[in-house]
Amino acid sequence: QGRDYFLSVARNISKRLSLDEASSTRDERLSFALEQAMDGLWDWNLLTDAVYFSPQLKRMLGYGPDEMTPHVETWKHNVHPDDRDQVMSLIDQHLRGRLMRFEAEYRLRNRNGHDIWVHDRGQVCERDAQGRPTRMVGMVQNITLSVGVLDIDAFKSVNDRFGHAVGDEVLHQVARLLRQTLRPGDLVYRSGGEEFVLILPAAGRETADAIAADIHAAFAAKDWEGDLSVPGVTVSIGLASYPQDQPQLHKLLDQADLALYRAKESGRNRTCRAGDLLAAPAPSASMID
Questions:
Q1: Around Cβ 197, how many Cβ atoms within 10 Å?
Q2: 240 pairs with which residues across the strands?
């Protein structure tokens, strides 16, 4: 009694400040996440048919940031005509509640007129008061993949004529030239002897054929005589693309191998692909080495 007191209340507001900061930067972070996402994202307003296409989806199809009109008709136009009815039927079944989600594999045409195979999946995320769907979001993944098997032509004669030390240097030069010619995301590894395997993600037939042509051109342009004192080095390549040439992914490498044998049997220094083997006779055993 008769004493003065000072009352102070301390409250930890760090969490609130963190939430405020998160709120203020949420749009920037979301934008960054969408920009960096490996898969393409889409967000469809079912009331207006406006569609948000993520930056990665646009890049997947070869478009710039402002080149895809944000409307569902833009997407429909890019779906391959042979796949469009099936895709739209699956979406309709999902919107009617007959399917838990929309999921399909189909072809999308990119800006250059080439088709890529995609795995598309989506789901209704908003409904109105009557339970009718008003918004649907989804994700598109480019599942196109090509595999190449590359063999150095007549490599045994290089070893026999110039020695194994020169042969080893040829292998090093070949590996270096392949890394320089392939795209940044492509993979190459030596599978044994003078054979290399090429993994070409998101590359359909047209893209893989163009890459193989670039490889042949790079080998033709290199001064093998001046660099290693050996005659010009050439390569044979077998290509197989998923799912165009082979619908079973685990068989893709075997199909590329068979295409390589056909390239060697046809005269070497060329590319053959698995899709061209259907009407051709089996490769002879003499061309396997």
A1: 17
A2: 147
